[in-house]
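Journal club prep, notes for RB
We'll compare a predicted complex against what the paper describes. Inputs for the 2-acetamido-2-deoxy-beta-D-glucopyranose case:
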Amino acid sequence: MIKYFPIFGALVVISLASVAILQAELNQFTQLELGTEVRTWGRTVGGKKEYLKACADNDNSNKCIHWSDEKGNVISSTSRSRVFNNGSLIIYSFQKADVGGYFSPDERERVVENSDGTKWAVAGPEISVVLKE
Ligand SMILES: *[C@@H]1O[C@H](CO)[C@@H](O)[C@H](O)[C@H]1NC(C)=O
């Protein structure tokens, strides 16, 4: 399927996702935003998808403090990240292991149908987080 993505106002067939790039610094506080409705963040690191959910401030269950797989099994057991109910993802001390593509399952691909019946899809946004050299 061919996908069309509006980039800077023009309609261009270019890639499978609209990707923003963020340069994070080692050991630094890093805040990511994809919209205030986001309650679950996902990331692809080392070819694996991991998820982290927004919870009440006093809720320290695994899914709120550790990146976990779709079934809730902990993958990266570090408490360096937290998702807030305003949609922000905060990584308190950015590490090499955090380099990856960040997205939200709450903000996935949107399929738009035109009045003539044709459809086009806008991929969900993704933030590619790289390490600042
Ligand atoms: C969301 O809430 C957290 C925790 O209170 C805060 O650190 C962060 O700056 C907030 N994000 C925005 C976009 O205001």
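Talking point for the session: The radius of gyration is 16 Å.
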